[in-house]
């Protein structure tokens, strides 16, 4: 898979091959997104066009507002899903001041048509783009007639007669309805990242943890979870994950710390995949380290029991 990064339109070389594209945040890469990608692939073969997926990073609302929706999926995981779904080219648009001020018509003419040589666009029915989200499907269709590209609208996917959306998945995760969230996602809910150095507080109380880099992203999940990890070694490893701000230590930024069950070692710089299995409790603030340790030991016992019962 080819991945290109665009800070400005001028940073992407002009495409000579005619292309078919889709654009979006693809947060969660849920069943609705998968339907769009499937249509993109079918039309690419049918029309003999080069397939390109455009994704925003950060997501526009994260750049424009302090109160942006929390992430379901970080970019690394999106790329993994895109590759699994058969996408061959990704352009990651670094959503910045330049792109935030770009008017929709200019984005179409200069980027989609002049640079990417777009002949067809496949999008969801609620797609909006450009400065202050002024661009919509009607504008795309109008410009398509003028500039020579087709617009294919993919109808919203539904489950249990309900529209699938990233917003609904976030709500399900917040309510601890993991099963419903995963039904809408069409895959297990997981988070991946690099193991980094932490402050070693867990090791000082005899309960070592690994710390996972979130690169300042705020996740849609928060609390203490039973998890499975891939990437520690050749086998699936069980663990207890705390996803939160660590209020006992006056934390502000969200972190992921995982205590690995029945395994210890140096795992720094490994890229691991954390699969959320079950929420154990909410994140709490404790008056002392001893009370925190007591609770963590209880969490470890609960998680051990969960995996034992799960495998019976």
TrEMBL record:
Documented EC number(s): 2.7.1.26, 2.7.7.2
The Riboflavin kinase domain, residue ranges: 184-308
GO BP terms: FAD biosynthetic process; FMN biosynthetic process; riboflavin biosynthetic process
Keywords: ATP-binding, FAD, Flavoprotein, FMN, Kinase, Multifunctional enzyme, Nucleotide-binding, Nucleotidyltransferase, Transferase
Pathways per UniProt: Cofactor biosynthesis; FMN biosynthesis; FMN from riboflavin (ATP route): step 1/1; Cofactor biosynthesis; FAD biosynthesis; FAD from FMN: step 1/1
Swiss-Prot/TrEMBL catalytic activity: riboflavin + ATP = FMN + ADP + H(+); FMN + ATP + H(+) = FAD + diphosphate
EC class: transferase
Keyword Lipid metabolism: no
Domain of life: Bacteria
GO MF annotations, alphabetized: ATP binding; FMN adenylyltransferase activity; riboflavin kinase activity
Keyword Transmembrane helix listed: no
InterPro entries the record matches: FAD_synthase, Riboflavin_kinase, Riboflavin_kinase_bac, Riboflavin_kinase_bac/euk, Riboflavin_kinase_dom_sf, Rossmann-like_a/b/a_fold
CDD domains membership: FAD_synthetase_N
NCBIfam families for the chain: PRK05627.1-2, PRK05627.1-5, PRK05627.1-6, ribF
Family membership noted in the UniProt record: Belongs to the ribF family.
Function: Catalyzes the phosphorylation of riboflavin to FMN followed by the adenylation of FMN to FAD.
Protein name as annotated: Riboflavin biosynthesis protein
Organism for this UniProt entry: Wigglesworthia glossinidia endosymbiont of Glossina morsitans morsitans
Gene that specifies this protein: ribF
């Amino acid at each position: 898979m080819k991945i290109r990064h665009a800070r400005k339109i001028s940073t992407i070389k002009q495409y000579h091959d005619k292309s078919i594209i889709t654009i979006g945040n693809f947060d969660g890469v849920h069943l609705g997104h998968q339907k769009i990608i499937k249509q993109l692939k079918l039309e690419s073969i049918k029309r003999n066009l080069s397939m390109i997926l455009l994704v925003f990073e950060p997501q526009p609302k994260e750049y424009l507002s302090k109160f942006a929706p929390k992430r379901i999926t970080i970019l690394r995981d999106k790329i993994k899903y895109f590759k699994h779904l058969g996408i061959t080219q990704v352009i990651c648009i670094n959503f910045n001041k330049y792109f935030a001020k770009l008017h929709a018509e200019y984005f179409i003419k200069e980027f989609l048509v002049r640079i990417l040589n777009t002949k067809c666009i496949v999008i969801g029915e609620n797609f909006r783009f450009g400065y202050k989200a002024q661009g919509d499907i009607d504008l795309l269709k109008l410009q398509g007639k003028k500039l020579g590209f087709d617009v294919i609208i993919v109808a919203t996917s539904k489950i249990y007669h309900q529209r699938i959306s990233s917003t609904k998945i976030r709500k399900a995760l917040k309510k601890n309805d993991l099963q419903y969230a995963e039904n809408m996602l069409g895959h297990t809910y997981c988070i991946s990242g690099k193991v980094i150095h932490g402050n070693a507080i867990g090791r000082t109380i005899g309960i070592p943890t690994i710390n996972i880099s979130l690169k300042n992203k705020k996740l849609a999940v928060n609390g203490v979870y039973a998890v499975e990890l891939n990437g520690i070694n050749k086998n699936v490893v069980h663990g207890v994950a705390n996803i939160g701000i660590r209020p006992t230590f006056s934390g502000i930024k969200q972190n992921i710390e995982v205590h690995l069950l029945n395994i210890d070692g140096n795992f720094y710089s490994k890229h691991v995949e954390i699969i959320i299995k079950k929420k154990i409790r909410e994140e709490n603030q404790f008056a002392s380290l001893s009370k925190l340790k007591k609770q963590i030991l209880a969490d470890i016992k609960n998680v051990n029991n969960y995996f034992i019962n799960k495998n019976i």
